[in-house]
Amino acid sequence: MDLKNYFTTNEIKCKCCGGLPSNDYTEMYERLSKARIQANTLFIINRWYSCKKHNDEVKGVPSSLHLTAYAVDIRCTNSVERAKIVFSLICNGFNEIIIHKTFVHAGIDKKNTVLTLGMEM
């Protein structure tokens, strides 16, 4: 499968400092690209990597997967799009999915082998 460059460095980097994660996030990038292909809908990334300062500013949890670039927030504005995104994320091994009113949070938590679904509307 050809994993086109669906996501740019600007989408990955921290919104406050422009920093990129120091760890390898290739698996995250590949799974997210496959989910994007399967969903056949645009994934607009609101947040991918966050430095500790930015994570604190947005009131993220101290163990946020955004700190290692293993979580993304994907903009989502309607139910059809939301269903396509969530289904493709589950099919591609994302095990932390929280559905919000305007975005879907998706992460790969290697410490947790169980799918965690949540909704905050």
Secondary-structure map with pairings?
Layout: H1 9-12, H2 26-39, E1 45-47, H3 52-57, E2 71-75, H4 79-91, E3 96-100, E4 103-107, E5 116-120
Parallel strand pairs: 3-5
Antiparallel strand pairs: 1-2, 2-4, 3-4
Helix pairs in contact: 2-4
Characterize the structure shown.
The chain is of the alpha+beta class. The chain has one domain: Muramoyl-pentapeptide Carboxypeptidase, domain 2 (2-Layer Sandwich). Helix content is 31%, strand content 19%. The chain is built from four helices and five strands; from the N terminus they run H-H-E-H-E-H-E-E-E. The protein has helices spanning 9-12, 26-39, 52-57, 79-91, and strands at residues 45-47, 71-75, 96-100, 103-107, 116-120. The chain has a five-stranded mixed β-sheet, with helices on one face. A hairpin with a 2-residue loop joins strand 3 (96-100) and strand 4 (103-107). Helix 2 (26-39) packs across helix 4 (79-91). The longest helix is centred in the first third of the chain and has 14 residues, at 26-39. The radius of gyration is 13 Å and the shape is globular.
